[in-house]
Amino acid sequence: xxxxxxxxxxxxxxxxxxxxxxxxxxxxxxxxxxxxxxxxxxxxxxxxxxxxxxxxxxxxxxxxxxxxxxxxxxxxxxxxxxxxxxxxxxxxxxxxxxxxxxxxxxxxxxxxxxxxxxxxxxxxxxxxxxxxxxxxxxxxxxxxxxxxxxxxxxxxxxxxxxxxxxxxxxxxxxxxxxxxxxxxxxxxxxxxxxxxxxxxxxxxxxxxxxxxxxxxxxxxxxxxxxxxxxxxxxxxxxxxxxxxxxxxxxxxxxxxxxxxxxxxxxxxxxxxxxxxxxxxxxxxxxxxxxxxxxxxxxxxxxxxxxxxxxxxxxxxxxxxxxxxxxxxxxxxxxxxxxxxxxxxxxx
Length: 347
Known about the structure:
The chain is an alpha/beta fold. The protein contains 9 helices and 11 strands. The chain is 28% helix and 29% strand. β10, α8 (299-309) and β11 (317-321) form a beta-alpha-beta unit. The two termini are 41 Å apart. The model is unreliable at 172-178 and 342-347 (pLDDT under 50).
């Protein structure tokens, strides 16, 4: 992402004391002074603190939980961020004066399921209207301290729960602020391809017969990248280019290709020990990280790419190209091999 990209946080729940402790005296005083200038300083303070927290995330070293789990680099007392589909449950039987507990659970797919759990006091929600946002099932961004830890479970004490978004002020002024995920249809070099057109069963099968190296060269040709490296064991990506045009802007991109050597739906375990191929891909100095596969790509892999892309220390964009989209691109180039007629029986 460009240097103009910043993180924005909208709070549903915010523990003021803990956020202020995280921010330190100087940032806290700055936030309190800004809130004091509002018509209702007390009501404004959680929102001003959230803005200050968003600006401080990278310097505070708040890492993505999914990345820490994947790298097996997580400890009790650590402050992490997690963007997950949470189930929130109000625990009325444990109510006490000033204490209205809400429990939450989510499942993180890191090759094997890791359960993320915890409780917070809904009396501390950012506003009365925010309470309704923390019931039932909801996608949310949570910043919290690890209070308990095992191979299958992480317990968090939240300091913030709400909505995280990435804002590009330059593009926002033009009315088209990008998200972290880029789709194949956003790429200028793919503009002639109809990504809504269905592929037949036979065409999807044909994708499994195109060697990974042939796919890499086909994509490089389409992008206009003349320098295609030979494969070797230590590479961080399979193709690096600065010639991709996304949403009208030239950008650098690093690509990871997964071919017929893994001819089935891709999960995190397909990407090396602890998914370390994703980890290596994100060490490339590229604005866009691309994962291509000849088959389905499971949501756990998409979630892991998303977590790495949202790392506050260096937010980036990512793109997923599964077997169906690979087939459409190869078909547009006339590179889908003929398949035996028997396969068409399954259409």
